[in-house]
Amino acid sequence: MRGVYPISLLIEGRCCVVIGGGSVAERKVHSLLEAGGRVRVVSPEATPEIARLAEEGRIEWRRAEGSEADLADAFLVIAATDDPGLNSRLAAAAQAAGKLVNAVDQPEDCSFFVPATVRRGPILFTISTAGGSPALAKRIRQELEQRFGPEYGQLAELLERLRPEVMAAIGAQPERAQAWERILDAPVLELLRQGLQAEAEALARRLAGIEG
What is the CATH class of 15-114? Predict the structure, then answer.
């Protein structure tokens, strides 16, 4: 089994090249856009959704077979064509040029794997099997989606919003840690689950000692 090092990659404004224009490439394009990447698709044909994104100016679409020249200014490359040989060739060229590379369903050609993800506001759960079993990663993702609802994202956003006030009001780190623990131990999450955002924030403020 290959060892992997987990990271969260910042790609905002960086050139991300997707070779291929099918449904898999479409999913990759959407995830890259969500992370703020500057996306270029290289493929003679593309799904209607990819074509729409290009027409709206949200991505660049070069209607051609992928080649090494398309990798020149890429920070990250995803090879997602239905030609494994082409994927391997472009992945090898990209890695030789120091690019980050993912060749879909070809783990031996990758320098990184794209994990299955569950996003709840600023919380991001990632599940990786190091490319060995995408089906298992998908199953775990589905279980996490059921276990952790949108209220967890709302709680994370609430704590982020309160953090500057807590930092200003409580000078010592141990006391700040205790304030956060009081909030997490209280039914703040349950109030959010019930849609009672104002009540949840009022309770969190009271427990942190920053009412008003």
Answer: alpha beta
